[in-house]
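Continuing the series of single-chain predictions for the mutant panel. This is the parent chain; the variants come on the following pages.
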Amino acid sequence: ATIFCDILGGEAKGSCAQGFGTCCYFETTACGGDITRNQTYIHNPGYPSTYTVSSDTTCEYKIIRINPNVCQVRFDFAVFDLGVPYYSGATQFECVSGNTDYVTFTPAGNKVNGLELCGYNT
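Parent structure:
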């Protein structure tokens, strides 16, 4: 119900669960933190303005599943602009701290095969 969404600090938008419930959306504009709710939107501080920093800044988010049976997470990027990748010569472009913006997705636990994104992502 809409009242429960309000109590949780979300915003009710439309119906979910094939019409049996209300979609509850959450939003954060903090640089980092824990994401503990489904349908959470992460915006840079000052969104929709660009986020410009003068030094190496790290915004780290920890996605915490709301149920132990959750086994995957979906990210939808509505607007996602990063600086150009670092050109290290020949045809080599790299995501390098201090030289470009980049995003790293690191699996929890002892998992490997994380993902790193930098450059133009359209």
